[in-house]
Amino acid sequence: MLDVRKLRLLRELAHRGTIAAVAEALAYTPSAVSQQLSALEREAGTALLERTGRRVALTPAALVLVGHAETILAVLEEASADLAAPELSGALRIGAFPTAVRTILSPALVALSSEHPGLELMVTELDPATAPDALRAGTLDVALVQEYDYVPAAPDPALDTEPLLEEIVYLADLEPGPLAGRSGASWIAGTPGTLCHTMTVRACQAAGFSPRVRHHADDFGTVLALVEAGQGVALVPELGAIGAPAEVVLTPLEARRRTRLAYRRGTRRRPATAAAITALKAAVRARTP
């Protein structure tokens, strides 16, 4: 019979790409991961990995097995959720991006602490692009993930999501004007590899030019301060534009940022997960536009 823990390692390898990354995420040694995957191959009776030097690739049989692993792990999560005690207690780990921590997560935490004092609330601030890996690894229970019109999110078979918030994206500058007119401007964008950086590049390309990025900043307060100082222009979503300096002109664009609640498949009925989702949605409804 196939071992569920080994199946999880294979699933993580499919997502993360290297044995070293799987080992780091799940607190194994690389040799232990390799040994477990070799044992899984013996249990399955077929080759699952193609090794070329230090690199490994999944065989067609392994990809089939990964699909089954996703279903098996989700069913086990459902069983655990159905057996969970109705009294809310224990750790609840939530991941969110910085502007959401300030504007959405903080009031949700107040409500959760008041209504469910037995919960041990644990918050991690992170880029939404890294949230799916953390959810699959079990280091988060609920996370806020994002997509932009120019950066759609690929579906993840290990996760379920539901809508939370849609925001306007603004062009932040010291004077009004269309995005297409900023081809010669200096730009302020997020760290390369983040969703915000990718969104800036693709939105500008859709307007007919590639941005000349001078500054990289991931905190929108810093971004707006740089705009106010005349250091460039930037794209800023609605939550990030709260409290913008009076000198900064915010021109709304057609682009939108969409935030969704994400959690592992099968965990929606877990009482703590359900309570977190309820509190976060209530905080969005109560926020001041």
UniProtKB/TrEMBL annotation:
Keywords: DNA-binding, Transcription, Transcription regulation. Residues 2-59 form the HTH lysR-type domain. It comes from the Bacteria. PANTHER family: LYSR SUBSTRATE-BINDING (PTHR30346:SF29), TRANSCRIPTIONAL DUAL REGULATOR HCAR-RELATED (PTHR30346). Belongs to the LysR transcriptional regulatory family. This is LysR family transcriptional regulator. It comes from Actinocorallia longicatena.
